[in-house]
Amino acid sequence: MALFRRSPASLALRPRSIAPNTSRRAFSASRTRCGYDDTVQNLRIGKHTRVIYQGFTGRVATGNAKDSLAYGTNIVGGVTPGKEGEHLGLPLLPNLRKAKEQLKPDATAVFVAAPQCGKAIEEAIEAEIGLIVSVAEHIPLHDMMRVFSILRTQSKSRLVGANAPGIISPIGSCRIGFQPLPTFAPGHIGIVAKSGTLSYETVASITRSGLGQSLCIGMGGDIIAGTNMVDALRVFESDPETAGIVLVGEVGGRAEEEAAEWIVDYRKRVGEKAKPIAALVGGIVAPEGRIMGHAGAWRGAGERTAKEKYAVLEAAGATMVQHPEDFGGVMKTLLSQSGRDVSKIVGNAQKQQLSKRGYHTMRRRPAAAPYRQESRITSNAFKEQRRALLLGPDQAPAPLEPYVSQAGVSLSDTEAPADAFHLGVTVDRTARSPCLAVSPSTNPSQLSQRLRHFPYDWREGPTDATIKSAIAHMQLDAAPPAARAQTTALLRALAKMYTDKEAVTLSAAVSIDTASGDLVLHQPTLHLQFDDAAFRSCNRQEDIHSLRRKNLEDPAELEAEAHGIVFLTLPSPPASSTAAAAQQPNIGTLVNGAGLAMNTLDALALQHSGTATNFLDTGGKATAATVKKSFELILQDPRVRVIFVNIFGGLTDGGMIAEGILLAFREVDMRGLPVVVRIRGTNEGVGQRIIAESGLGLEAFDGFAEAAGRVVELANR
């Protein structure tokens, strides 16, 4: 096939976004004098913040509100549709309009399940509530893109989440979310994190150091977030109570890169007065092409790896750590090096802590102040959530063909030629919207540099100008008119399919046949990824979900899915590789929380030269039975020589984990393998006591470094 040739392209540094058209009428009734970026100061919560709940009378919201009230949060009432009266001695109203008028809230905690959550957030935006915190898991991606398309049109409401632990000001005694309260202590370190569990371990380290926390913001683990790292950094910079800053990132998206760019600018602006910043990035050893527990924990085309993000943050001036338990000591050192009086900062934090019941991650807590393990909002089908469905090239033509045929483009079963173009639609995490993703090259060595995003409004679709800009970047100016027209039609068709079928990414390589002047789409390059939550949470897109072929998937991963566990079997390096000669995977890992599970793999490999056989997140609703099933999954792999249980209890109870370990030893053939246990956080003392008194020969540790060192020693015996 003769192919259209184009002029050489200059290389862009990284994929960049062009702001989407936002000319649509504003959703909020207020006049938009500023914009969504100007709502970041709504994140500065404290004793003054008047909080309401949406879904107030639900079981999870009720328990959460009781704990938050006891903590000191200024909860003034809540909303449950169709109900009016009192709940927990506070006003209960049937809708947000009445709540806004009568209660005058500053913030709302959205404790509404995934199928209704998008609508609940929209109602809060329409009511012009200043801060909206959404904690539910498994909200369909396109529900949230609609929400973000609305948020951009107004300047009153700020969103935290979705799928986020929330926001908490220990120094202001205000929690909006489900963070484990005993772990927090008033103080002067600001924290922003994608992962809930990683943030809890970070908080515990800061608490143990005596520094405490001023404000902690959970971004959430979804593909797009209402509040990102730069938003948090802007707040921390101007907050007089914040003396130092911690960032906790992970694989996927550009949030960490954008934070690094902000840090460079900040240090130039402020100079020696800059607040010290420490950071961690999870997923450095995560395998390519896999979703690492969180819906957003995957690397898209053109995005940096977690290892590259680590390097970018370090180059920007952030001090990098490899495990969150190190943050406390590192931050004290940084504060001292910056000329700040650490003893004074710690003393001020201790004065704040005297008036509050503290946990400080010690082994014992006052018997009179037990901590209730909390739940979080999930969809009813949480046990089967995968968050993505990827169709192979042989499956893709069925759903794609009706859209491609309308564009007048033919599918070819041939491989893409060397000078093909990359073309598709995906999500732009920075713009929080869909985008056209195009490149003048499909060469893997160039794609990450030449791919460019052209965002557009989810409700409007791509404009003529957006499509024209995308085609110009593809360098199709000199292409035959028919090919340019087909490219325009194909981009429109893919954008329509993207919305119709609730896709995450639709992409392929295309080329131009100079003999006919027509555009050719190469079937072997098709990449069609769909959001599984649309079906699991809302029973939408059944036709797409029916294409899933479980018979081709890892049986252990499917078994885990049925029990609410996220489990990935990690491959061994090729026998001929240098890595294979150095270390074969032989450590089974059992961890709670996707972020902590990623970091466990990283720290084992980078700090202790250990290699894991699997990624396992027990899930936020883990039970003793879940822990037992986790052991069964790990033990199916004959490579495993030692099992490492690494738990930091936030939502997960340390005592329950310990009971699950004992259950596994009673009912599962453990193959005589050694088990090393580290339990910290919620009810850690109970869990540690159960392990110590079990008589099973389990090895228990407090610190990660000691535990991981022992694990690697046992693995290599």
Automatic annotation (TrEMBL):
Q: Which GO terms describe its molecular function?
A: succinate-CoA ligase (ADP-forming) activity; succinate-CoA ligase (GDP-forming) activity
UniProt cross-references to Pfam families, sorted A to Z: CoA_binding, Ligase_CoA
Q: For this chain's UniProt record, which GO biological process terms are given?
A: tricarboxylic acid cycle
UniProt-annotated stretches for the region Disordered: 355-374
Ranges for domain CoA-binding: 45-139
Which InterPro entries does the annotation name? CoA-bd (IPR003781), NAD(P)-bd_dom_sf (IPR036291), SUCC_ACL_C (IPR005811), Succinyl-CoA_synth-like (IPR016102)
- Residue ranges, compositional bias (Basic residues): 357-366
Q: Which domain of life, per UniProt?
A: Eukaryota
**One Gene Ontology cellular component:** mitochondrion
PANTHER family given in the database record: SUCCINYL-COA LIGASE SUBUNIT ALPHA, SYNTHETASE SUBUNIT ALPHA, PUTATIVE (AFU_ORTHOLOGUE AFUA_1G10830)-RELATED
| Name recorded for this polypeptide | CoA-binding domain-containing protein
